[in-house]
Write a structure and sequence with these properties.
Elements: E1 22-24, E2 30-32, H1 40-45, H2 53-61, H3 66-75, E3 81-86, H4 96-110, E4 115-119, H5 128-138, E5 144-148, H6 151-154, H7 162-168, E6 173-177, E7 180-184, H8 200-214, E8 220-223, H9 235-242, E9 247-252, E10 259-263, E11 266-270, E12 282-288, E13 294-300, E14 305-307, E15 329-336, E16 346-347, E17 352-355, E18 360-364, E19 370-375, E20 385-387, E21 390-395, E22 405-411, E23 422-426, E24 435-437, E25 440-444, E26 448-453, E27 459-467, E28 475-477, E29 480-484, E30 490-494, E31 500-504, E32 521-523, E33 526-530, E34 536-540, E35 546-550, E36 555-561, E37 567-572, E38 576-581, E39 589-594, E40 607-609, E41 612-616, E42 621-626, E43 632-637, E44 643-648, E45 654-658, E46 662-668
Parallel strand pairs: 3-4, 4-5, 7-8, 8-9, 9-11
Antiparallel strand pairs: 1-2, 3-12, 6-7, 10-11, 12-13, 13-14, 15-46, 16-17, 17-18, 18-19, 20-21, 21-22, 22-23, 24-25, 25-26, 26-27, 28-29, 29-30, 30-31, 32-33, 33-34, 34-35, 36-37, 37-38, 38-39, 40-41, 41-42, 42-43, 44-45, 45-46
Helix pairs in contact: 5-7
Length: 671
């Protein structure tokens, strides 16, 4: 389809300082170089252009069908900013999308866009091998290129997000091209399933970039993976920031559909995936007229340029009204951290401990005041564990860069002294959590090793089995440590010798169905798990023999057990809480409670404490249920981000953390 030419305007002189040449450096990263030399034609026209030998070679050797080139040329007039957007390309080495990429690279090199932006989901699961491969593929594009991660890079990353930064230099960008501010940032979610959420440090980056680049009314185009509505927890808050500036478009992907609509008062373009649900292949083209109009088109791979469908606007919804709590229940906002928090908390009589997205490990007093903090300069995803006067937490990098990951054993200070501690190197970033049992800590060392650690830092390990990335805390009971990994397997080790007793998987090779982020429940001689394959499974604790599997509900990763091990509690993807008896030869449901969450895929573990079962939602709702009857006791909305975890304190209070940095304390008796 050939769209009509737009009226041509006289080209405006372009500032050469803003037009830069990008090329791979010796490490293969796209790096900014000094402006290239000008062609004779560019010098005479007053514009700065870059002579790119690779692009000229591609144009000589790879000629697109004439009609395709003509149709694209009809869209592009001098002096306008043209951008190619690739979204949701989902490349793994050798898969169907990977085989399409040579044609994509050929077309992009041949078109007349000034730069390329990749708006996330470059890979299927963010594995280092996938990231290295797609980086090499995209290095064949002889144009300025910027990439931001999608949920498939941030959710299951083997490197805690570090490989993406190593290859592309950052997860965000803020530049000016032809007088237009282009700002891109990551939307998560980070190292666990759930809604997207823009981290506090990225919100600060966005605010500062807007102030510097668009403070005088300059036009802005924003790039992110999640659209602002629905699955981005703080999307409305981001929109409120953007509405104070001349934002001409918010460009995203993620939905695997393609449309344009006003979202929260902002013109939003949701881009198509490389392979659509209808079997078509393509990407998107943007054209900004230099003043106020941003146009978007679909480009079919090897075919036509088509318009993008317009849909009805989406308005910001008011925050839900507060639900009354029972008189004897108190939910207290104990502390609000300025950074995002992706960990639960360890709670002792002397304090509350957690890690932040900006690399700080924080200790609060029992009253919620900051007692001390240590900056490790790497984000925390591991929930701390307290044992024998020590606080243990996983590190996504050792101090001084001595190892890819580590486990810190920090003494529980009684005087506020934050010095000291032991640091145990690990072969990979440690995003998982530990479980204390009989004065020792059981914990995965990122990937490859599983350890039993004492408070002096001495440890034994099983490294004869090459475990995948371990994320959920292990269950330790009856002489067995049971844990899952992102390698499709559930493992059972002897708690004393750490020798492998058995391993189990669901028979599928799909790694994303692994029980990698679940805390198993051990009770009555059984191990009960749920997993992203949407099944609940019971296994014999001694042998690993599968006893039953059930998919009566849409189970995923949120699981917990009763204090006596007799009941497993699972939150479903339909926002229900299900109680199931352990020790039975078949699936035996005790009760089901509708929590009123609606669709919910957040993996927050379930906690039973003193006869009350606590569950957390993807958008900040805490629900309390009677453990005996399944009756919903109360709900409390603490924010707009996912609940990370629950911890029972020594005084019987329950502590909850939210991604937006809020720490809550719940106290009082069951109604």
């Amino acid at each position: 389809m050939v769209l009509p030419d737009r009226p041509r305007r006289r080209s405006r002189p372009q500032q050469g300082i803003l037009l830069e040449r990008y090329q791979p450096d010796s490490a293969g990263r796209h790096r900014r170089a000094v402006p290239g030399r000008q062609s004779r034609r560019a010098r005479s026209s007053g514009r700065t252009a870059v002579i790119n030998p690779e692009r000229k070679r591609v144009l000589r050797m790879r000629i697109l069908p004439l009609l395709t080139l003509l149709s694209f040329s009809a869209l592009l007039t001098a002096g306008e900013l043209k951008i190619t957007v690739l979204s949701d390309i989902h490349v793994s080495p050798g898969n169907a999308n990977d085989k399409l990429m040579p044609d994509v690279v050929k077309e992009v090199n041949a078109n007349d866009s000034a730069l390329v932006v990749v708006t996330g989901d470059l890979t299927n699961r963010g594995a280092d091998r996938e990231l290295e491969h797609i980086h090499n593929v995209l290095s064949g594009i002889g144009k300025e290129l910027h990439a931001i991660p999608g949920n498939h890079e941030t959710n299951w990353s083997e490197s805690a997000g570090q490989t993406f930064v190593r290859l592309w230099g950052d997860e965000k960008f803020a530049i000016v091209r032809d007088g237009v501010a282009l700002i891109g940032f990551s939307t998560g979610p980070y190292l666990k399933m759930g809604d997207g959420y823009v981290r506090s440090e990225d919100v600060a980056f966005l605010k500062e970039s807007l102030r510097k680049l668009a403070g005088n009314g300059e036009p802005v185009i924003v790039f992110c993976h999640y659209p602002l509505a629905d699955e981005l927890g703080n999307g409305a808050a981001i929109a409120r920031i953007l509405r104070d500036y001349n934002v001409v478009g918010v460009v995203s992907g993620h939905t695997h559909s393609q449309f344009r609509r006003t979202i929260y008062g902002l013109d939003s373009i949701v881009c198509r995936p490389l392979t659509g649900f209808d079997g078509t292949h393509g990407y998107n083209l943007l054209r900004f007229d230099g003043k106020e109009k941003l146009e978007a088109f679909e480009k079919r791979l090897g075919g036509d340029i088509l318009p993008v469908e317009n849909r009805e606007p989406v308005a910001e919804q008011p925050f839900p009204a507060e639900e009354p709590l029972p008189e004897n229940v108190r939910v207290e906002l104990l502390h609000a951290d300025p950074a995002s928090v992706f960990t639960g908390a360890a709670v002792t009589r002397s304090g509350i401990y957690y890690g932040t997205s900006d690399g700080r490990f924080v200790a609060l007093t029992p009253e919620g005041e900051t007692a001390w903090e240590r900056n490790f300069k790497r984000p925390f995803y591991s929930t701390p564990a307290a044992f024998e006067g020590v606080i243990a937490v996983g590190l996504t990098g050792m101090p001084g860069g001595l190892a890819p990951g580590g486990i810190a054993l920090l003494p529980e200070p009684k005087s506020g002294d934050k010095r000291g501690g032991l640091f145990l190197p690990a072969p990979a970033p440690v995003i998982g959590s530990g479980t204390a049992s009989d004065g020792r800590l059981y914990m995965g060392a990122g990937a490859g090793e599983f350890r039993r650690i004492d408070s002096a830092g001495r440890y034994e390990k099983n490294d004869t089995v090459r475990f995948g990335t371990m994320q959920g805390a292990p269950a330790v009971k009856d002489g067995v440590a049971v844990f899952g990994a992102w390698d499709t397997n559930l493992y059972a080790l002897d708690a004393e010798t750490l020798e492998l007793r058995w391993k189990w998987n669901n028979g599928k090779s799909q790694v994303l169905f692994s029980p990698g982020n679940v805390r198993p429940v051990i009770g009555n001689g059984q191990v009960v798990i749920v997993a992203p394959d949407r099944y609940m499974t019971a296994l014999d604790l001694k042998t690993g023999r599968q006893l039953w599997r059930a998919n009566a509900h849409k189970f995923r990763e949120a699981l917990g057990g009763s204090e006596d091990g007799g009941t497993a509690y699972a939150k479903t993807m339909d926002g229900e809480l299900v109680a199931v008896e352990t020790g039975k030869p078949e699936y035996t449901e005790k009760w089901l409670c509708d929590l009123g969450f609606g669709y919910d895929h957040a993996p927050c573990p379930v906690l039973e404490a003193d006869g009350v079962v606590y569950a957390g939602s993807r958008n900040g709702v805490i629900a309390a249920v009677d453990a005996a009857t399944g009756k919903l006791l109360w709900r409390y909305r603490g924010g707009d981000s996912a609940v990370n975890d629950f911890t029972k304190g020594p005084d019987g209070s329950v502590y909850a953390t939210l991604i937006e940095g809020r720490i809550y304390r719940i106290s009082g008796k069951m109604p």
